[in-house]
Amino acid sequence: MSTLTAPRAVVATRPQRVSAPRARRRTTRRLGPGRAIPGGATLGLLALLAFWLIGSATGFIDQRTLSAPWTVVTTTGELLEEGRLQENLAVSAQRAFLGLALGIVLGTLLALISGLSRVGEALIDGPVQVKRAIPSLALLPLLILWLGIGETMKVVTILLGVFIPVYIHTHNGLRTIDARYVELAETVGLSRWAFVRRIVLPGALPGFLLGLRFAVTGAWLSLVVVEQINGTAGIGYMMELARTYGQTEIIVVGLVLYGVLGFGSDALVRLVQRRALTWRRTLAD
Predict the structure, then answer these.
(1) What distance in Å separates the CA atoms of residue 159 and residue 156, rounded to the nearest whole number?
(2) DSSP for 149-170?
(3) Closest listed residue to residue 202, CA positions, set 238, 231, 177
(4) Cα–Cα–Cα angle for 94, 263, 174, nearest 5°?
(5) Residues 52, 69: contact at Cβ < 8 Å?
(6) 10 Å Cβ neighbour count for 217?
(7) What pLDDT shows up at residue 104?
(8) Are 187 and 232 in contact (CB under 8 A)?
């Protein structure tokens, strides 16, 4: 008699879920400078003005050395009523803008010739680098011998202080254009003018605008010096005349005016830079 063995019962077990460990949230650390602060460009100026106000009010800053802000404001009002400030400012602005315009044109043309031609680079870049090593103010005695002490000498001095940064940064922008764009232009058969318009100019624009920022500042710096050399009008002449009579408040008015003009010109160029380079994302955005 054979014994039948009962089959083993197969117990269906429901698969248990293995609880996966919770993924740790990765906190990305922001390495950039962060979001732009509204009006951040003026915070430093406001802090400097506050220090000037508090220092003058408490006597920490001697008013015989540096006039108080309220004295500068009063003196500015008096100069405006007399018409002296407007006249001198108009003369200074004419000199600065004329030298700036000529310097920008000269620096850009030389950069294009040197950046797009090896022969042009061999002939132009060396002398420009030598001029870069010689301060424009060091050439003043020679310029006075050549051009006299009139307006031509003043405008040429400003021009020499302007065209160097425009040339250096524009030339660098041209030389750093990706060679693949040049190969692509040759492949599609772009003409010389189309190559310059579509590749060269957009590629050199960031460098040109950076050089322009240095150029506008250099124009005002050169103007400060040339207007104190046998001048008969201009902000620098007004300051030199005030130095002769010991009028510190007028000297400070001129310094503040130069600072405002320089800061405003740089802010204008930065605005153009942001509008023209919207396609580029940088840490400043």
Answers:
(1) 5
(2) TSHHHHHHHHHHHHHHHHHHHH
(3) 177
(4) 85
(5) yes
(6) 19
(7) 94
(8) no
CB 149 within 8 A of CB 230: yes
DSSP, collapsed to helix, strand or coil, labels residue 220 as helix
Q: Provide the mean pLDDT of the chain.
A: 82
Distance in angstroms (rounded) separating the CA atoms of residues 92 and 78 = 19
Burial environment of residue 102 by CB neighbours within 10 A (0 to 12, 13 to 18, 19 or more): middle
**What is residue 34's three-state secondary structure?**
coil
Q: Report the C-alpha gap between 269 and 27 in whole angstroms.
A: 38
Long-range contacts of 253-256 (CB under 8 A, 24+ apart): 253/72, 253/75, 253/76, 253/79, 253/85, 256/72
Can you give the pTM of this predicted structure?
Answer: 0.77
Q: How confident is the model at residue 27 (pLDDT cuts 50, 70, 90)?
A: low
DSSP-assigned letter for residue 32: S
The amino acid at 56? S
Residue type, 150: G
**Rg of the chain over all Cα atoms, to the nearest angstrom:** 32
